[in-house]
């Protein structure tokens, strides 16, 4: 799973607004905003969120004692 901080960071790397992310996920901006503030989201939606970011080139770095993070491996595909 990913954290709220990883979601915000991934969105920042891709230069996506909350509205753009919500549109890509077919969910409300309110849901994205709530998750990014630490709110709950269904496991299926978190998986979709993670897959959407990964498809755009984001890699999620696990905690592993050094702190969770994100990295952008390749340029964002043209829209």
Automatic annotation (TrEMBL):
Q: Which Pfam families match?
A: HTH_3
Q: Which InterPro entries match?
A: Cro/C1-type_HTH, Lambda_DNA-bd_dom_sf
Lineage top rank: taxon: Bacteria
- GO MF: DNA binding
- Ranges of residues in domain HTH cro/C1-type: 8-50
> Under which name does UniProt file this protein?
Helix-turn-helix transcriptional regulator
